């Protein structure tokens, strides 16, 4: 057995107080996001964990890249026929989480996912490099395949077929917009007395803020 009980760290880089937070969690998320980005320690500050309830009833989490956020919510892109795509279609209740180790911060977002409009998915797909476009077409994400060679050979065939041509977005690939219902901000503090502030969406489109015990 690997005993990890002595793995400890004191969190001392910042604090999160009610006196310095905005009324809207998206504004605080924006502030934190760019502070982490400016800090320069996180290779992909937009990397987030998306958790869903699978068709088998088990939760499943995987890391994807956030591609846009606004007052409407958080957008990422995927193959709709993947495990996550099928899970979201069956149960749109999802959780997004960010862990920014360098700033000792975590954000957890509970929300409802829905497909973005086709023009939004088209716009992002068109902005991708051709290799990424072809990768989205050739990969039947989450499906069992015989080998990596199988993927690479199919990619070569597609490269030849689309040489000098426009590459269209496949119908089974596009975006999900996650509309937040709750957003929790976690700031590491000394002695495990961490700061936790939770925003909860209200029926009048305002946000209720609460401090949670660490």
Automatic annotation (TrEMBL):
Biological pathway: Cofactor metabolism; pyridoxal 5'-phosphate salvage; pyridoxal 5'-phosphate from pyridoxamine 5'-phosphate: step 1/1; Cofactor metabolism; pyridoxal 5'-phosphate salvage; pyridoxal 5'-phosphate from pyridoxine 5'-phosphate: step 1/1
Domain of life, per lineage: Bacteria
Enzyme class: oxidoreductase
Residues in Pyridoxamine 5'-phosphate oxidase N-terminal domain copies: 45-157
Entry note: cofactor: Binds 1 FMN per subunit.
Residues engaged in binding substrate: 8-11, 67, 124, 128, 132, 192-194
Xref: Pfam families: PNP_phzG_C (PF10590), PNPOx_N (PF01243)
Protein EC: 1.4.3.5
InterPro entries registered for this protein in UniProt: Pyridox_Oxase (IPR000659), Pyridox_Oxase_CS (IPR019740), Pyridox_Oxase_N (IPR011576), Pyridoxamine_oxidase_dimer_C (IPR019576), Split_barrel_FMN-bd (IPR012349)
Domain Pyridoxine 5'-phosphate oxidase dimerisation C-terminal: 173-213
Swiss-Prot/TrEMBL keywords: Flavoprotein, FMN, Oxidoreductase, Pyridoxine biosynthesis
An annotated Gene Ontology molecular function: FMN binding
Keyword tRNA processing: no
Record has Oxidoreductase as a keyword: yes
Residues annotated to bind FMN: 62-67, 77-78, 84, 106, 141-142, 186, 196
Reactions listed under catalytic activity: pyridoxine 5'-phosphate + O2 = pyridoxal 5'-phosphate + H2O2; pyridoxamine 5'-phosphate + O2 + H2O = pyridoxal 5'-phosphate + H2O2 + NH4(+)
Free-text function comment from the UniProt entry: Catalyzes the oxidation of either pyridoxine 5'-phosphate (PNP) or pyridoxamine 5'-phosphate (PMP) into pyridoxal 5'-phosphate (PLP).
PANTHER family assigned to the protein according to its UniProt record, in alphabetical order: PYRIDOXINE-5'-PHOSPHATE OXIDASE, PYRIDOXINE-5-PHOSPHATE OXIDASE
Protein name: Pyridoxine/pyridoxamine 5'-phosphate oxidase
